[in-house]
Amino acid sequence: MNIPQELKYSKDHEWIKVEGNTATIGITDFAQDQLGDIVYVDISSQEGDDIAVGEAFGSVEAVKTVSDLFMPVSGKLIAVNEDLNGEPEKINSDPYGDGWIIKIEVTNPSELEDLLDAEGYQSIAG
């Protein structure tokens, strides 16, 4: 299982990469593996929306299940990975790269302190 050291993680299996005030969010290698083949990504939020920590911003649909996506920190949605519309399987093949899901402008940086580091995430992902 791939758990990059430079990322932060939520207990809901989202990863977040923060660069300045912008953060990229996706689901972890563990999560995509548990879901299986991802066939559809639905982002229920619109660009410009403010989304609170813990709020669902969309879902991923795999062959046998649908799983909600939860915000690891509060932020304003600034970009959605449109490539996933035609190729949702990018989440399976490259969850930390081309399989990113959204980008946000972080509105409450102190919430980052509540996230797990790679070692902490490893302990819950097993």
Strand element count: 9
Order of helices and strands: EEEHEEEEEHHEH
**Main beta-sheet annotation:** 6 strands, antiparallel
The domain tally reads 1
Structural class: alpha+beta
Gap between N and C termini: 9 Å
Strand order of the largest sheet: 1-2-3-9-8-5
Task: Tell me the overall shape.
Answer: globular
CATH class membership: Mainly Beta
Classify the helix fraction into a percent range.
Answer: 10-25%
The overall pLDDT, averaged over residues, is: 96
Radius of gyration: 13 Å
The CATH superfamily name is RNA polymerase II/Efflux pump adaptor protein, barrel-sandwich hybrid domain
User: What is the quaternary state of this protein?
Assistant: single chain
Query: How much strand content do the residues show?
Result: 35-45%
The CATH architecture term is: Beta Barrel
Catalogue the unreliable spans: none
Topology:
Elements: E1 8-9, E2 14-19, E3 22-27, H1 29-35, E4 38-43, E5 50-51, E6 56-62, E7 66-70, E8 75-80, H2 83-86, H3 90-93, E9 102-106, H4 118-125
Antiparallel strand pairs: 1-2, 2-3, 3-9, 4-6, 5-8, 6-7, 8-9
What tags apply to this protein structure?
4 helices, OB fold (Dihydrolipoamide Acetyltransferase, E2P), alpha+beta, 9 strands, single chain, six-stranded antiparallel β-sheet
